[in-house]
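Contributing new records

If you add data, match the layout below exactly. Sequence lines come first and carry their own label; structure lines follow with theirs. Keep one chain per record. Anything else will be rejected by the validation script.
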Amino acid sequence: VKKAHAAGIRVFAHIETADDARLCAKIGVDALAHLPGYGWDGDEAIRKKYCMTKEDVQLFKIAGLTVITTMNIDHTKSYDDNWNVTLQPEKIAATQMYEKNILRYLYKAKVPIALGADYYEKTVAPEIDSLIAQKNFTPAQLLDVWSRQTTQHIFPNRKLGEIKEGYEASFLVLKGNPVTNIENIKEIRWRVKQGKFIIL
């Protein structure tokens, strides 16, 4: 981390356990490439190993650590002898409740959150769909995380993600208000990049 920072390079860490995440915060990692606990399968016996706490949220805030959600990765599934998926409703409910609560704590504490897919050849769309389906954020919060926080984390040296004087004129015009109906984010009418209309 020290060598990377000395060279002006940010450090992103793919983590598995809560202790991984705590170590990253202590040594100055810039971003976690997973929400701590994303790999938890809903088994209460191992929750402590994987899942972060309210105290961790404060640790991340002090460290200036960004958390990339990767909500679309599901470890609650099991498989039968023929490799057919077997869903486990109780474990799914437990993991989704943990994710919803911890994301709300992170947002409220103003720990930077960014969205990412963690899959090759895929956009962030499935991640957005997961966050909408699980209602982890209000529509206004999701728009803030997606269009402002994520954008500014990817391009920290550019003025993006807000409609303000001096910011780049890159934005989408939607059919309807996404704050009242988040599904309107899929109804794109105009695309403007750096002040120029993009025709698809």
